[in-house]
Specification:
Mean pLDDT: 85
Number of strands: 30
CATH architecture of the largest domain: 3-Layer(aba) Sandwich
Oligomer: single chain
Number of domains: 2
Radius of gyration: 22 Å
Structural class: alpha/beta
Shape: globular
Number of helices: 13
Length: 599
């Protein structure tokens, strides 16, 4: 079935499949023929999550003992430390580092006195009230914003933003609180890119450049055999704004004769949008679940569903994940240029406090052993537009830029191909961006570069990043290439397969590589018998100890930066030798797809 493809501005938008455009996603076309401390009880929640209604804001209170927390997270990743892989419970985190119960209660009481309904997390009071109450409480006017996002689709959705920085009541100022209207400001909605792969469908299984099923990728990257390592006992959480079809899981995994997962759905803020075959959110959630479970078919999959990708909704999902403390690994196939939060993009008002809210939640998750994985973006090094919306500039995406998140870039994979054979053994990879050519620097490729928000994390001193601040990505896996709208594509561009709405599609993007890597982390954690928390300590430790053994670092590429030998801004530390990465170097490896070692 043919589908109408439109090119709008600087982005590829799919008229029948996409509801939003932006960075860090996938593209699709039809395919044919997851310290201890004295315990402190959680502060009483004023009302249940489902009861908080109205315009929603977050009053975030600063963590206590922040430097000590960062030191603990580093020790948890240090093999020589007594705290190595010793993770906290949520109660232990609250007792040592979270906002005090008294401060949370004071903040909640202040808001309730102004007419808000409230609920609490370890770090914040989430409050809601009618628009007029919010405007009066914080001396702001809420209005429809003008988006600085890359692409304008998100601006078409209904939403509000504050016309000025909020004025905090004295009681909240005394607590050092910050008030985020992130859920209102849809210029801070995270973006996904559901991009169409232009790669023609091959005649067989399939060709040297794919398309690839999860079994092809597992053989190519040298995963341990399914019979010995499959991520058993681990849980991967997917954050998304849409539900999925269980029938698509049956279709997708049935193709490879594998029992599909039973997805545990965890609604947040009212839950996700229903499955919609015209929704980019629906194809994104479907891809994430299929890639993650295909990579770790023994892991449990949880779908933390939110109504949209506003910063507020996403922060609420992350807060729910760390408070639930059930997921070991969290995948986020979305992002937004970090520059958009700075004063230069917001009339002189600095909104980087929104990023700090996420950062603090990630730190809590890491201290509890939870690993956060995020797509590095699909726009190469040029992930941002300038403040005047006139041209593209270099920049990196949040949450991938956060030092407590693992950023995953991507490549094009080439495997063995022989008529009649199912073998998909590794041959080579490349990471050259595809250019649209109508706008300078407008390209499709692995996101990467240098953060202007975050300082250089300790683990990045283990390699030469050629920068004094946080750089991304950290690692890479297959993402594919050749989107619709690119006049010339690289000869090795490839794609992945996703089942969506009862059909198979070809997809490309780092929102394919990110959930696959989340699955590899589940396989690794299952073999090691422990969570990894901030997995970057593990990732960069392997690079220090044996780069060539753990990663492929001979991959050429260009995304605005060159993929030079060693760590680079296209591939990070490279793509993993999966069994070595999973600390199981002598394991039987996954063989041909459809065999006992690789169903």
């Amino acid at each position: 079935m043919t589908r109408l493809i439109l090119r709008v501005g600087a982005l590829a938008c799919i008229a029948t499949l996409v509801s939003a455009c932006g960075g860090g996603g996938s593209r699709a076309v039809p395919m044919m023929p997851g310290q201890s401390g004295a315990q402190q009880p959680m502060a009483t929640i004023s009302v249940p999550e489902s009861a908080v209604r109205g315009v929603q804001v977050t009053v975030h209170l600063p963590l206590r003992n922040g430097a000590d927390l960062d030191a603990l997270i580093a020790r948890q990743g240090d093999q020589s430390s007594a705290d190595y892989h010793h993770y906290l419970t949520p109660d232990q985190f609250r007792a040592a580092y979270g906002a005090s119960q008294q401060d949370l209660a004071t903040a909640a009481a202040t808001l309730q006195g102004m007419g808000f309904q409230t609920r609490l997390t370890s770090q914040s009071v989430i409050a809601a009230a009618p628009q007029s109450t919010v405007e009066r409480a914080f001396s702001v006017k809420l209005q429809v914003p003008q988006s600085h996002a890359r692409g304008t689709a998100s601006a078409a959705r209904a939403g509000l933003t504050a016309n000025r920085a909020p004025a905090l009541p004295a009681a909240l100022t005394k607590l050092g609180a910050t008030v985020s209207f992130a859920g209102l400001q849809n210029q801070f909605d995270f973006q996904r890119v559901n991009k169409v792969a232009f790669t023609p469908t091959p005649d067989n299984r399939y060709s040297a450049e794919g398309p690839y099923w999860f079994t092809d990728l597992k053989q190519a990257y040298g995963y341990p055999s399914y019979t010995s390592a499959r991520g058993s006992g681990k849980k991967i959480a997917v954050v998304g704004s849409s539900d999925i079809l269980d029938s698509d899981l049956v279709l997708y995994f049935g193709h490879e004769a594998l029992t599909p997962p039973t997805v545990v759905r965890r609604p947040v803020d009212g839950g996700p949008q229903p499955f919609d075959p015209s929704s980019g959110g629906s194809i994104e959630a479907s891809l994430d679940v299929q890639q993650a479970f295909g990579s770790a078919p023994g892991a449990g999959i949880m779908l933390y569903g939110v109504p949209d990708l506003s910063s507020q909704s996403v922060a609420d999902a992350y807060a729910a994940i760390v408070e639930d403390n059930k997921a070991d690994i969290v995948n986020s196939s979305f992002g937004l240029c970090e520059l958009y939060y700075t004063a230069a993009y917001n009339g002189g008002t600095d909104f980087t406090s929104i990023i700090q809210v996420f950062h603090d939640i990630f730190r809590q998750g890491n201290a509890q052993g939870i690993t956060f994985v995020a797509s590095s973006g699909d726009n190469g090094a040029y992930d941002c537009v300038d403040p005047t919306d006139s041209f593209l500039v270099k920049g990196v995406s949040n949450p991938a830029d956060d030092p407590n998140t693992t950023a995953v870039g991507g490549t094009n994979l080439v495997t063995t191909f022989k008529n009649g054979s199912l073998a998909s053994r590794y041959v080579s990879e490349e990471a050259f961006s595809d250019s649209y050519q109508d706008i300078p620097n407008d390209q499709f490729g692995s996101g990467g570069g240098i953060s202007v928000i975050f300082g250089k994390p300790l683990y990045q001193y283990l390699v030469n990043t050629h920068a004094n601040t946080r750089t991304v990505p950290d690692v890479a896996m297959h993402m594919g290439g050749c989107p619709v709208g690119a006049p010339i594509c690289n000869p090795d561009d490839s794609s992945d397969v996703v089942a969506f709405g009862g059909q198979f599609f070809l997809v490309i993007g780092t929102s394919a590589s990110s959930p696959e890597f989340a699955g590899l982390l589940a396989v690794t954690e299952s073999h090691l018998g422990t969570r990894l928390g901030n997995a970057n300590y593990y990732i960069y430790g392997l690079a220090l100890l044996g780069h060539n053994a753990a990663y492929r670092m001979d991959i050429p590429g260009y995304n605005g930066y060159n993929a030079t030998p060693g760590y680079n801004y296209v591939l990070g530390n490279g793509t993993p030798h999966a069994a070595v990465f999973a600390a199981d170097p002598f394991a039987q490896l996954a063989g041909n797809p459809g065999t006992a070692s690789n169903p």
